[in-house]
């Protein structure tokens, strides 16, 4: 069902971030073009290199990264995406998206995209409630 689709995989700062490596690998096995965007807090739990190795694409973290071919990266990725999955999705990022706050690579890309979005909350139960 996802064969040949472009999937943007957003990873936020949660202990569950390490599990997303399995998701990235499974999406590649389904022949998806997987592009990972991590928040800076996610990088405290797992490294971008893990996802670059699994997907064959550069893992994006910094909105102002100067190591790129010239394009507006968050817009080009947003247009390319067939599906955006945010897993794990921290309370912080969910609140930003719900209120239109675009202050990092992940939130600017998600808000700029018309693609279907799947959000998997990962937080303390009290925070979720």
Question: What descriptors fit this protein?
Answer:
129 residues; alpha/beta; Rossmann fold; 4-stranded parallel β-sheet; 4 strands; globular
Task: Briefly characterize the structure.
The chain is of the alpha/beta class and 129 residues long. The protein has one domain (6-128): Rossmann fold, CATH 3.40.50. The protein has helices at 20-29, 48-55, 73-80, 91-98, 105-112, 125-128, and strands spanning 6-11, 33-38, 83-89, 116-121.
CATH architecture assignment name: 3-Layer(aba) Sandwich
- β content, as a range? 15-25%
Number of strands: 4
Elements, N to C (H/E): EHEHHEHHEH
Shape: globular
Measured distance between first and last alpha carbons: 33 Å
In CATH, the homologous superfamily goes by the name: Flavin prenyltransferase-like
Name of the top-level CATH class: Alpha Beta
